[in-house]
């Protein structure tokens, strides 16, 4: 994928599934369930033990149209290791200047209007609003007044029931972690994960209909 096509794949998905757990052992099975339900953007967080191996496995097993990236990328070393494992994009909770102009799209985290503006000026095609749940969709609407050209991906503290509200407020996509993944990474029901994933995909379709 080109940089633009990776970003557009994330926007089309509407939801980025954030895979974070003490261990990444179940990420392969989780990835299959999510993609089958229509969620085609996955973020493997580097804080999960075995994350790079899991990321490489997901890239091999899932269709090439699925955007598989690395999350919680905080350094150039993190970025290089993630790309070596097959990451097609990188996400950080903060803006890391060392990643400007990196070889795959980097979506930095920001919170205040100044941070969001500066992250966008770095060349980021998406800026991660984090932690989004502390402010809500109204904050996003207010940001789009002075910053209409910045594509924002709210993440953190968002529930499945909130997806449509964020998207209609102008979010390019939303990031969901535990409200979507639940206990699936620690032996929980994959069938229930599928139900949650379909609800999330349906919320995206509803918001865009």
UniProtKB/TrEMBL annotation:
Annotated transmembrane regions: none
PROSITE patterns per record: ALDOLASE_KDPG_KHG_2
Alphabetical keyword list: Carbohydrate metabolism, Lyase
InterPro entries: Aldlse_KDPG_KHG (IPR000887), Aldolase_TIM (IPR013785), KDPG/KHG_AS_2 (IPR031338)
GO molecular function: lyase activity
Pfam families, alphabetized: Aldolase
Leader sequence segment: none
Pathway listed: Carbohydrate acid metabolism
Subunit and partners: Homotrimer.
Family (UniProt): Belongs to the KHG/KDPG aldolase family.
Protein name: 2-dehydro-3-deoxyphosphogluconate aldolase
Protein species of origin: Actinoplanes friuliensis DSM 7358
């Amino acid at each position: 994928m080109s940089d633009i096509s990776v970003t557009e794949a994330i926007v089309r998905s509407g939801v980025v599934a954030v895979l974070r757990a003490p261990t990444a052992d179940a990420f392969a099975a989780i990835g299959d369930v999510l993609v089958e339900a229509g969620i085609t953007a996955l973020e493997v967080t580097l804080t999960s033990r075995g994350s790079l191996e899991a990321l490489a496995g997901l890239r091999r097993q899932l269709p090439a149209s699925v955007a598989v990236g690395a999350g919680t990328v905080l350094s150039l070393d993190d970025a290089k290791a993630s790309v070596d494992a097959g990451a097609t994009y990188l996400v950080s909770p903060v803006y890391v200047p060392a990643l400007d102009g990196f070889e795959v799209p980097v979506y930095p985290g920001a919170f205040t209007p100044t941070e969001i503006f500066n992250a966008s000026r770095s060349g980021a095609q998406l800026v991660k609003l984090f932690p989004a749940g502390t402010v809500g969709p109204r904050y996003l609407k207010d940001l789009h007044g002075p910053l209409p050209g910045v594509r924002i991906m709210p993440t953190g503290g968002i529930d499945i029931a909130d997806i449509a509200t964020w998207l209609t407020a102008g979010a390019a996509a939303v990031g969901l972690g535990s409200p979507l993944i639940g206990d699936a990474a620690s032996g929980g029901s994959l069938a229930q994960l599928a139900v949650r994933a379909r609800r999330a995909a349906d919320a995206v379709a509803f918001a865009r209909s």
